[in-house]
Protein: CheY chemotaxis protein or a CheY-like REC (Receiver) domain
Organism: Maribacter aquivivus
Amino acid sequence: MIRILVIEDDDVTNFITKTNLEKFGYKNITIALNGQLGLDYLKTNACPDIILLDINMPVLDGWDFLDKVNELNLCSDIPVIITTSSFRNDDKLKADGYQNIVEYLEKPINFQHLNTVISQLKSKKIEL
């Protein structure tokens, strides 16, 4: 069973994301409300199969989360799908600098497309 870690600070977005992922059959979904809680999760649990990561969050944002994961070599090979409301081209360019970011999705998320990306990762077991 595929394990998905969603790191997102907005409760409504988390509800919508979890509900839509469950419609596609994904049941093992964990929510972390900021990058620090996501990091804490990775320190105390098995690595998830995929991370859905927002960029702009309090406490520890998405970029700082990715930097800490790499610095600590903590699940740093797990595919990351950016899910953000940021339309800034700088963010897209910055995402290209991270080897484990496999997709950059702007909100509102097209969940059919997200399911396709996750299915491809699952079926191909892409190694980064």
In short: Residues 72 and 108 are 32 Å apart (CA to CA). The mean pLDDT is 93.
